[in-house]
Structures are given as C-alpha cells and as structure tokens.
Fold these 2 entries.
Entry 1:
Amino acid sequence: MGGAELKRIDCLKAIYPELEECAVVTIMGAVAAELYSLGHRPNFFYLEHAMGLASSIGLGIALSQPSRKVVVIDGDGSVLMNLGGLTTLARSRPRNLVHLIFDNETLLSVGGGAPGGYRWFTTATSTGTDLAGIASAAGFPRARTVRELEDFAAAALDALKGHELSCIVAKVDAEMPKSFLMDLHMLENRFEFPRALQLAIKGRSE
Amino acid sequence: MPVSVANSQVVYDAIKHADVKLVSALPETWLVHLIRMADEDPEMTLVRLAKEEEGVGVSAGAHFAGVRSVMLMQNHGFLQAINGIVGVSLLYKIPLLMLITDRGGFGEKDPWQTEGGKHTRPVLDALHIAHEDLTRPDEVELRLAKAMALAQSSLSPVALLLGRDLMWEEPS
C-alpha cells in the first residue's frame, strides 16, 4: 500500500481531450481544481459538497440522457461515504456511465493531507479496502485497479469508447493540487451545466 | 394489506400528469402500490435506491439532463437524506419534489414509527422547505401540480406529506 507514483493531473490530462461531448461530474477539492486547471468547459460540473453523491448525480444524468456518455470523477473518501450508491449504479447498470475513482488513500481535500504528500487522516483503502473489488462485488460488469499512467489511459479510453458500466480505480499520490483556486462560482457552474447538456441534445436532434 | 390501491393510483396519475419521467424510491408499506405502478409503467424510470440520500443526487442529475423526477420515501427516509437535501438541493438551488408517506401521526399503531413522524415537520420547517399535507384523493392532482410548479420556479425542495387518511384503509 501507498507509495504510488501516479498523479491525478497526469490521468486527467490523458482523458481530457475525450471529455468534450461527455457530461462530467467531479467531486470537490483537488480533483475539481485540477480538472478546472486544464481548461474549464460548460459540460463539467464540480460538486463542491455532498460527498458521495457525485455518482448519484451521474446516474440521474445517465438514465435521463442514455445517448450521452457520463463520466464521474470520484475519490476514495467520497465513494466510502456512499458505498450503497455503488450497488444502485450496478443494478441500474447504465451503459453510458464511466466511474473513475482517484484513490489516494486519504481524505486529502477535507484536511486529511498536507503539502509534501504527508497524510495524517487516511481512508480505509490505506489498510486494504479494495474499491474496485467492492464495485465488482456490487455487480459492476467492469471494474479494475490501475497504478501506472499507461494502464489508466488505456483502461479509461477503452471505457469511454465502450458501452458498459465501468469502474476504474487509479491509485494516485496524495499530493495537493498546485492551487485550489477556481474562478467560477458554483452557481454559475450549476446553471451553465444543464444548459450545455440540454442545448447539445436539442442541437443533435435538429 | 389495507394500503389504498385506488388512492395510490390517484397519486401515481398526478405524478404522471406533472410530466415526471423518473421516480427514485425505497419501499415502505404505504408506498408499495405506488412503487409497483412506477415499476410497471414502461414510460417511467424507477431507480431503486439503497439509501434515500442517493435519490437527491439522482434527481439533481435528472434535472440537469432536463427530466422531471420525484422521490418516494417515508419520514425516516427524509431524515436520512438531509445532508443531500442541504448539500445539493438547497446549496445548488435544484428543484426536488419529495413525496413522504407520513407515518407516526394519529392512528399509528407501530411504536417504531412514532418518533420519525414527530420530527418530520419541524425539520422541514427548520430548512424552510415548503410542505403541505395530502389527506383527500380529490385534492391530490391539483396540489401535486402546484408543488411541482413551486419546486421548479423556486429551484428548491418541496414536500408533500401523504397522510394516513389518504394511503391507509382501516380494515373493517
């Protein structure tokens, strides 16, 4: 356990070009800040609270717009707050949802980490809890853990192009983002996001 | 089981007339017919939740995607979902129509339902969530339509409390 070399930001860079047509829902904190730093798009929604519910929001979108790919970018701390949600995802089994989980074994963004990668409030994944194993046992048709960038990129791109509910757990460094700054109010994001999702659908049908 | 099939149908018809396409739910006795009706309706997406708080997220996602939804739950389900209601629906100003079967009031015979029923209205009031009681079948359609209208215009959660007189037929 621990000592991962993989970085969230590099994983995000690897999939960023593929996210243009997707509905993307991220958790708060480091993941949101880093995706934002790569270039915000109106089809990105950053859930700044309600840890655990990013995947539930993704499920609501996926069931309501079955022709759109939905990407949920989650974290170990959030997923552990809503393990039942994995079973709801699995039984609903939307073919258009990809659940990416960055597992840094730490409640990093709520204060469990510190600069330099020091972790003082770890999650249960640091002592062996296997989120991909839980997803798989919950009934996800595809779930795996990756530790290398090439493996993450291959698995994520495969899932994004595929048509099956997928979960990819990336074991990543518990490193703070360069900045938590996001020059976008959460309510502005809240209103632009559905506009992007609904305009695109209307545009496509015309 | 003396859960009113006829009045469950009245509530379900009102849900349909409010243009709802997605229902998320956990069962309780008074909700069995309503959930079955959603399940048997090919036009309705039924999301079977593991815990009620998830439903707040599911409804938010459906709203983002342009789809109207309702959550079906009972008092303890509402109490369970509070963090999601505050952290998603209230914080992000997202419409959420909650249909709460209101156990634990006058006539309640199950001791384990009495506490949740007692705290539901004070908690709704503390969160400034508009709520009304549904006790008669002839008022269901109009009140549900009005509740949906308010949820959509105010971008907030709204609750309808489905009462004993509506949902339960005392065995004769």
Note: The interface with chain B takes residues 23, 25, 45, 47-50, 52-65, 68, 82, 84-85, 87-88, 91-92, 186-187, 190, 193-194, 197-198, 201 of chain A (CB under 8 Å).
Entry 2:
Amino acid sequence: MTTVAGRPRKPRTAWKVWAWLAVVAGLTVLAGWSIDFTLSPSIRNVDYWLRTILAFITPNWSYFPRIVEPLWVTFSISLVAAAFAALFAIVVAMLASRVTMRIEWVYRLSRWVLAVWRSLPDVVWAMLFVAMVGSGPFAGTLAMIAFGFGIVVKLTAETIDAVDRGPLDAVDASGGTGFQRARVAVVPAILPNFASYALYNFESTVRASVVLGYVGAGGVGTALAVQSKAGNYENVAMIVLATLVLVIVIDALSWLLRRWLSR
Amino acid sequence: MIRFDAVEVRYPNGTVGLDGVTFDIADGEFVVVVGLSGAGKSTLIRAVNGLVPITGGSLVVGGTELRGAPRRRLRELRARVGMIFQSFNLVARTTVMQNVLIGRLSRTGFWRTLFGVAKAEDVERAFRALERVGIVDKAYTRASQLSGGQQQRVAIARVLAQEPEVILADEPVASLDPPTANLVMRDLQRINRELGITTIVNLHFIDLARAYADRVIGMRAGRVVFDGPVAEASDEVFERIYGRSLRAEDVLPGGDE
C-alpha cells in the first residue's frame, strides 16, 4: 500500500469499541434470559389488552368529583414540601460550597452527607417516613421534603461554586464577615438559578407524589392505587387524566415564572 | 501612616510577590504605584488590607500590624481601608444603593444583614457618597445596567460610605476608555484633597501617573526601584522601572483628553 507523502494514514477501526458493544449485547441477552423476558404474551393476550386500552380512552367522567379532594391534597403536599425543601436547601448549600464555607472539614462532611442523602430514591424516603409517622399526607410531605432537598441543594451548591469572585473580594475588602459575604454577594447572584431549581423541584414533586400514594402517603396516588387494584380502569383513566392536566398547568406556570426570573 | 519594613510576600507556589519592600506613606498622601504587570503592584496593594498575607518583615497600617493578624483584627482593619478594583466588583443583580451599603457591612449586625434592612443613617451616608461622585440619580438602578465608568463611580461611593482612612485602587481605570479614565482619576484625586484620605493607586499608564500622582513608587520584580515626587519621575526613570525603552502603549490611547 502506498501513501502520498504528508497525508495521514486512516486510523484502524478501534477493536475495543466492538469488544465493548459485544459485551453489552451479551449482558443484555443474559439479563433477558434470566428474567424469562419474552414478547409473546403481549401478542397472545391482545384481547385483554384491547379491553384495558378501551377502558383507558373512555374515562369515567362522573368519577371526577370524587378525586377533586385527593388532587388538592397532592397539590398541597407538593407545595408545602417544595417550599420547605427550598428553604433548607439554600441554607445547607452554603455549607457545601468552598466559596461560602472556608472550614475545610465542614465542607467535606457536608458534601459527603449530601451524596449519601441523594442516593436514596423517593420511594425509599416515603417508606421510611410511613414507618416513622404512619401513613398519610404528613409522611408524604416529609418524604418529598427530604427527596427534593437533596436535588435542590446539589444544584444550588454547584451554582455557588461558579459564582463571580469579584463581589466576594469587595465584601471581604470592606471588612464583612463570612456570613455577610454569603448573604450580600452570593445570594443575589444565585437567586434566579435557585428559584428555578426550587420551581423545577415543585413540578417533579407533583409527579412524584402520585407515585408516593402507592405506599400510603396520601393524595391522588392513594386513590389511584385503590382503583387500580380493584380493576376500575375507567376510574383510573379519570385520575390519570386529571393528574396530567394538573401537572401540565403547573409546568406551564413554573416555566413562565422561571423565564421571568432569568430576565 | 502606612509603614512597610522589609516586607516579603511569597505565594504558596513559591513565586515571590514582594521582596524586601521598605517605605512609609504619610497620612493624606496620593501615591501612584507603577510597574509592568507582574512587577508586584497588585501584591503590594493587596498586602495593605491583608487580602494577600505577608510572609516576612513588618507592615503596619494605622497602628495595626498585619503580619500574622487574626481574622478578627483583619476585619477591623479592612473596615478602615477601602478598596477599588479594576473590574469594579459590584453585585450585578442588586441596586446601586445595595452595592454602596456593602461599605457599611462592617458596622451592620447579623439580623439587619439577613433581612437586608439598612440603618437610616447608613442610607443617608450612601446617598451622600453617591452625590459626591455625581450619580445619585442612579441610586435605585440595577448595577448591571450602568456603563463601566458609572460602575466604577459606584465602587468609589461604596468605599466612601465606609468612611475609610485609606483608599486602595488596583488598576481602577484599566477597563475604561480614556476620557472616562480621566474622570475617575479626577474623582479619586478630588476625594484625596477634600477628605484627606490616604490614597494608593496602581497604574501602568505613564501619563496618568504624571497627571495625578504626588509621589511615584516604581516596582520591578517585587522590589521598589524608584520612590520620589512626581517631578523627579522622568522618562529615564520610567525606562529604569520598566526595564526597557518606552512605547506607545505606555501612555493612555488618545492622550490626556
């Protein structure tokens, strides 16, 4: 093979890529085989599927009045939980950034605790609090505070890390304390981002609190679990539809607010 | 009174910022520090308020020794020493008033800071400071909406609100266009004359140094290589400070007005 001087030779295909692809594909097949995964039942039970889908596209409208209250509970859980999560998050985020926390071990400990905290999924928090305070909206609220806090505090701490250092110097140079530099120079700089994270958390709290109802945390999720177990798919469809509308409305409002905040 | 005595600054990475710097600055002087970038001008100014800790010698500012000063004593000193920066360092998302009130933080308590409620007399001080630099009409404008020259004047007002004994200005006009640079330098000079506040300014433009300094300190490689009245700072002196012949870039583009 001759090459023209100065032109680079085409690099050889990286065999490593193919090897990894083969490993991933092999693992997938093995995983499917170990849980007896097959698509055939979905073809055999077409009949049953069609009936369920039919139930879903014909929601039981007369059921709606009965879900207004659980929906309101879900909304309230989300709002209260998101507010408390945000409040705790902005305070703790100050401990978890080197910009605002100059004591090295406090910073490291905060980061470590928060990493462990975030590794717990929302359902685990819910089960934990149901076990602690009994089932109901209170447990659901506590679970959503704990879960949302973990998310908002991480995003906020990272925003603090990236804040412009100039105003911090100005506060230091005028004899301000560490607290004053956090309150006066850092808070205004991160406020739009922080508010945006808090609102995003509110949106996802509404969605998550539906799932949490399944573990007895109250709200529309509990109604969903009951109706679904009883096989009343027309009612389930009504619940899903109403929740969908609520989530879309909240998403839209939150989007408008965030756009206004970052103007 | 500021007394440098064999001051040495060695950064953690081994770089020497100041190498045996000795001189006195009397109360009310207007001193311009000149030198190429990297000569130690910025280190010199930041040593005065302890933003850069000194590693050798002795530095006394208004009766306070900075060598090994604990954090609390540093804060007390910084309350008496104002600082102006090249990039203004305003909190962009708040109002001009909030920025000027930063100058009062050292006399503001925890709860007032937390809820952002300034004392009435501090607001009055802030207004007077803004009047002195001529932008009181912008008091409730967002800092980010101002031009560079206006922002630097807000920064000067922030320092004035502090009612300091010393003003440090680290390349205060390097980010400004020539006419604005002269306006800001004139503000600093007027404040020095009217209020008798000791002023130390870092500059790298020869013509600005000549126009506004009473005394010139020339820095090169962390050492003081010239210290004298502005009348003695001839072109030869500047060539010695810069270690090369003078160039067009050493004067403010467009000249003095």
Note: Residues 64-163+190-261 of chain A form a domain with the MetI-like fold fold (CATH 1.10.3720.10).
